[in-house]
Amino acid sequence: MDSIISMVLIFIGAALINNFVLHYFVGICPFFGVSRKVDMAFGMGCAVTFVISIASTLSWILTYFFLRPEAAFINNVFHALGGPADIMIDLSVLSYIAYIFVIASSVQFVEMYVKKFFPALHQSFGIFLPLITTNCAILFACLEIMKNLQNPEKLWGFHEALALALGGGIGFTIAIVIMGGLREELELCEVPKALKGPGIALIVAGILAMAFMGFTGVDRGVADAISMIRN
Amino acid sequence: MESILGTILFAAGILFVLAIIMALILGWANIAFHVETDPKVDALNEALPGANCGGCGYVGCNEYAVAVAEGKAELTLCGPGGASCVQEIAGIMGQEVKETWPFKAVVHCAAKRDQRLKQQPYEGEKTCAAANLVPGVQGCTYGCLGYGDCFNVCDYGAIDMVEGLAIINPEKCTGCKACVSACPRGIITMVPFKTTEVMVVACSNKDKGPLVKDVCSIGCIGCSACAKPSDGLLTMVDNIPVMDYDKFGKDSDLSKSIEKCPRESLVYIGEPEKKEELKGAPERIEADFETTIDKTDWWG
To answer: What is the pTM of this model?
Structure first.
């Protein structure tokens, strides 16, 4: 039951309270680049959610078994290969390069898969799918998972990593779709010439981020509600 | 010391193994998920200008390339590419094409603001689409309104608003037809530029003479004086002369028609051509990549 609470809290935290885009300001480039129309924004959001889930899954596996300090599996391998028994190996230095690696190859794989089996979807994604490779929101999710696998006393389970990935992806989708709707309306507004395009988009994003600050504390309420139901 | 070296080697080994696993997965996927693409489509994509203007009626250059490769589309639809692009496409498809000309937009109205009479003060939204809904915003219900809808929609900077009249610069026009659909009065049409200079009937008013004189100081009064000496090039339809561009060419002599015209309805558009340049295909129009390809302001 505790794991369900933590999953729900991590999910809500990633989706609303600490929204990747509007709280941490990661993944800003697709947030502005592809938010011209709502349907394009939604497509991008879905693609990011998809890739973020795959990349987080792989990076959790990598981190849990190989890259975290005092990982039992990799130390056993190390000692079995003749490493000194008194040395505990810590490969967390490799985490960045390994995550970039995993993200890039999973995006490639997903693109090939979609191209083969969903040609229509591939056509509508167009350039966005390869662009996700450089989307820092995905690397951010991986690093967040790594951060929570550092302390051997309190390790994140796979379900928690998945909750973070799904929450982050859905939070990104929410943010970019709202932004797409706002920018569609902005097309009809008379914007001062100096602020046209990027300027007004950044201002709107800032106001949107402030609005999302209103979610602060929602997690506390949700946790209370769940524990009330339990009792 | 040895243990440090061992650790480094171990880390490198882990990375190496990871790389090999990923490479194997991607290599397998590349074969398993291989999609056959027509090599013609790739070659056509190379030949097309890549401006994605949509002038051909397809969403982008790639879609047009696919349609051409499948034989569903004409070879000659690409305006920005010009004649040399059509030749290249024909070469790839193994077909012969007849001589083609770039189609460019022209405005069938020559009346500047002061020449359009009976204008009423208009305080509404400053677009032609809105002004066109207001009856009596200006006397002529056919002519240019001058609020620049075509100017705003042109990505190539080919349209200038001069004294309330849209004037298209054929040298900059790529034939994307954006202005044709933007004009609420439909006075912009596409005309084949067989030479760099083309004669255009610069009036769209279909009313009879006296009515036209009331609303415009230069508009066509439908006297049909130009039609007779034009050797069949100009025919009167609905009180205005219509140019037959299939017959119109570099040898057409319309000086008599211009002389006879009591108004200023026949104008030449474009640069007068030099005699030496008459031979050969028209020049290729290069798409302006800075302004056309990527309408998104920035990618990450």
So the answer is: 0.57
Interchain proximity B300–A134, CB inside 8 Å: yes
Contact B11 A93 (CB under 8 A): yes
Question: Which chain B residues are Cβ-neighbours of A133 within 8 angstroms?
Answer: none
Express each pLDDT in A89-148 by its tens digit.
888 888 888 898 888 888 888 888 888 888 877 776 666 677 777 788 899 999 999 988
Inter-residue contact A104 to A96 (CB < 8 Å): no
Which residues of chain A are within 8 Å of residue B6 when distances are taken between CB atoms? 83-84
The first and second tokens of residue B205, run together, are 């008013």
Note whether B39-93 and B103-295 share their fold: no
* Interchain pair B33, A112: CB under 8 A: yes
Phi, psi of B212 (to 5 degrees): -65, -40
Q: B50 in helix, strand or coil? A: coil
Reported as a single tens digit per residue, the pLDDT across B161-214 is 888 888 888 888 888 888 998 999 989 988 888 877 788 888 888 888 888 888
CB B166 within 8 A of CB B151: yes
CA-to-CA separations, B285 to A72, A117, B99, B101, B174, in angstroms, rounded: 66, 39, 16, 11, 7
Structure tokens given for B130? 């809105």
Return the number of other C-beta atoms located less than 10 Å from residue B61's C-beta.
Answer: 23
Tokens linked to B261:
């015209």
Q: Cβ contacts (< 8 Å) between A121 and chain B: which residues? A: none
Which ranges constitute the DSSP H helices of chain B? Answer: 2-32, 39-47, 61-69, 82-93, 128-131, 149-153, 178-182, 209-215, 255-260, 289-292
Out of B14, B26, B299, the one facing A66 most closely (by C-beta) is B14
Contacts of B32 in chain A (CB under 8 A): 116
Per DSSP, the residues of B222-265 read: ---TTTGGGTTSEEEETTEEEE-TTT--TT---HHHHHH-SSS-
Helix (H, G, I), strand (E, B) or coil at A25: coil
Task: State which residue of chain A sits closest to B300, comparing Cα positions.
Answer: A29
Q: What is the second-level CATH architecture of the domain B39-93?
A: Orthogonal Bundle (1.10)
Task: Look up residue A141 and give its two tokens.
Answer: 């999710």
Contact A22, A212 (CB under 8 A): yes
Domain spans, chain B: 39-93, 103-295
Q: How far is A216 from chain B (nearest CA, A)?
A: 29
Give the Cα separation of A105 and A53 in Å (integer).
14
Q: How far apart are the first and last CA of chain A?
A: 12
**Which segments of A85-169 are extended strands (E)?**
none
Residue bearing tokens 């505990």: A88
Report residue B216 as tokens. 């415009």
Of A32, A83, A119, the CB nearest to B6: A83
Q: Which CATH number fits domain B103-295: 1.10.4160.10, 3.30.70.20, 3.20.20.100, 3.90.470.20?
A: 3.30.70.20
Query: How high is the ipTM of this complex?
Result: 0.73
What distance in Å separates the CA atoms of residue A187 and residue A177, rounded to the nearest whole number?
A: 16
Identify all chain A residues contacting B296, using CB atoms and an 8 Å cutoff: 33-34, 36
